[in-house]
Write a structure and sequence with these properties.
The complex is a heterodimer of chains A (212) and B (257). By secondary structure, chain A is α+β, with helices and mostly antiparallel strands. Chain A has one domain: Roll (Nuclear Transport Factor 2, Chain: A), CATH 3.10.450. In chain A, 63% of the residues lie in helices and 16% in strands. In chain A, β4 and β5 form a beta hairpin. In chain A, α4 crosses α7. The radius of gyration of chain A is 22 Å and the shape is globular. In chain A, 25% of the residues are buried. In chain B, 58% of the residues lie in helices and 3% in strands. In chain B, β1 and β2 form a beta hairpin. A two-stranded antiparallel sheet of chain B has the order 1-2. Chain B is built from 11 helices and 2 strands, in the order ααααααββααααα. With 257 residues, chain B is mostly helical. Chain B starts with 12 loop residues before the first helix and ends in a 28-residue tail after the last helix. Classes of the chains: A alpha+beta (212), B mainly alpha (257). Chains A and B meet through α5, α7, β5 and α8 of A and α10 and α11 of B.
């Protein structure tokens, strides 16, 4: 009888340790630590890659897609920028809006990254309550002239912290694109906005294919 | 000509006054808020016209010269010129950091000027940045903003570009803080002013290209970016903003009729 209990106890403890171990593996990386790691990876890659330094967009675009996009809540970003009209859009339109907006941002962001030569990123310590589900992570690109402000709005999700807004030089992206999109939608409707974005992405894609 | 008649970007004082007066008349004449107009840009009609004019002048004159400067002048000279004018601007930034009661930034900026002017050979070498004394750029418009003056409506100035009512009002004070304006010899002063303009414009070439890629409408993109960047204490909303609506999540309350 005692032996039985003892075995059960051992099994129970083992299971508990296994569960704790799994939790440890999935323990959430702190948002500022995540940004620090991603920034270091991005800058390392850019500075050491000759093609990127020469202006090859395709490589940096695929890098951004692979390494950074998984940490971005793009649905929230797009919905926020489109605003009230998001609810009026069909699921198909929403999907296309997200795709085209993502294409625009990845391209623009990658274009900015090709200009990095010898700068580095300094991430400021996080000033937030541990219980906050939404934080702002502040960082700066330093090394040449004026430091460039680069802030991220991040939210806590079960799969880790994700970015939902970006601030460059004091300008929040979502806020700025709200006006851009609203203007386009009031002039040409949601389909008009999708068409405009798709057109620009295609044109820019053609240019970089010629260059690269 | 004495230093008194030197203005911002080489415009004479009388010319500057004339420009501002002309603006005043145009603004009162064109003051309309369109049906879908942005409340921060009541003079959009006028602003867009000046914006188009500025773009035309830039494309015809300034951009080609800046591109040439960038292509021809050796990089170390370009950096030197940039650092030199940056050092001059740091002196004014110091004054404004003091006026805004920012002890840490004031001390760092003073140290920057001291270090760069001596070890940095009159500012040509930015020694301070390499020892982590970063630039804290401040101007009088931001000082006014810090003490509660709201930005006011968006205003595009002829040749000078995007501004706000507050920052335009701060221009005469900005002019006083401009060290280039204290140079007595006219040709030298004009040359320095022109060189600074060239340095600024060539530094902004890449940003211009990014702007073309990022913006659907350049005018509104530049306007919104500029207004965000110039936001000060005086622009904070009087009532706490409502939490942002989450359009990506399902509606929690029934839609309003």
């Amino acid at each position: 009888m005692n032996r039985r209990l003892w075995l059960d106890f051992l099994r129970g403890t083992a299971a508990a340790f296994l569960a704790l171990g799994a939790l440890g593996v999935h323990a959430q990386e702190a948002p500022d630590q995540l940004i620090r790691r991603l920034s270091a990876e991005v800058f390392e890659t850019i500075k050491n890659d000759k093609d990127v330094q020469a202006g090859d967009m395709r490589k940096i675009v695929s890098f951004v897609d692979l390494k950074i996009m998984p940490h971005v809540n793009f649905t929230r970003m797009t919905a926020s920028a489109v605003g009230r009209n998001w609810r009026q859009a069909t699921p198909e339109q929403q999907k296309r809006l997200q795709e085209e907006f993502k294409g625009l941002l990845v391209r623009t962001y990658s274009g900015a990254l090709t200009q990095v030569k010898d700068q580095s990123v300094s991430v400021k310590p996080l000033r937030a309550n541990p219980a906050d589900a939404e934080v702002i992570v502040r960082s700066e690109i330093i090394g040449r002239g004026d430091p460039i402000q680069l802030d991220y709005r991040m939210e806590k999700t079960p799969s880790g912290w994700r970015i939902y807004d970006l601030n460059v030089l004091g300008v929040w992206l979502v806020e700025t694109y709200r006006t851009q999109f609203a203007q386009e939608i009031s002039a040409r409707g949601i389909d008009g906005l999708i068409a405009t974005l798709a057109e620009r992405n295609k044109a820019a894609g053609a240019v970089s294919a010629k260059k690269g | 000509m004495s230093a008194q008649t030197v203005g911002v970007f080489g415009l004479g004082r009388r010319t500057l006054l004339a420009v501002l007066l002309g603006l005043q008349l145009l603004i009162t004449g064109c003051a309309t808020v369109g049906a879908g107009g942005d409340p921060r840009d009541p003079w959009e009609g006028y602003n867009r016209q000046v914006w188009r004019f500025n773009e035309a002048v830039d494309e015809a004159v300034l951009l080609p010269v800046a591109r040439g400067y960038r292509a021809v002048v050796p990089q170390f000279l370009q950096t030197g010129v940039s650092n030199f004018f940056g050092n001059l601007s740091d002196v004014w930034s110091f004054a404004n950091n003091v006026l805004q009661l920012k002890p840490v930034e004031s001390a760092q900026t003073l140290a920057r000027v001291g270090l760069n002017s001596t070890v940095g050979l009159l500012g040509f070498v930015d020694v301070a940045s390499s020892v982590n004394l970063l630039r804290h750029r401040e101007d009088f418009g931001q000082t006014l903003g810090r003490w509660g003056m709201p930005s006011g409506p968006y205003l595009v100035l002829p040749l000078l570009g995007p501004s706000t009512l507050r920052d335009t009002a701060a221009l005469p004070v900005e002019r006083m803080g401009d060290l280039v304006g204290t140079v007595a010899d006219t040709p030298t002063r004009a040359g320095l002013t022109g060189l600074r303009l060239l340095d600024l414009r060539s530094g902004a070439i890449d940003a211009g290209r990014l702007l073309n890629e990022a913006a659907l409408d350049r005018y509104t993109f530049v306007r919104d970016s500029h207004l965000q960047r110039r936001r000060g204490v005086g622009d904070r909303p009087k009532v706490a903003a409502e939490p942002e609506e989450r359009y990506d999540l399902p509606q929690t309350s029934p839609p309003a009729r």
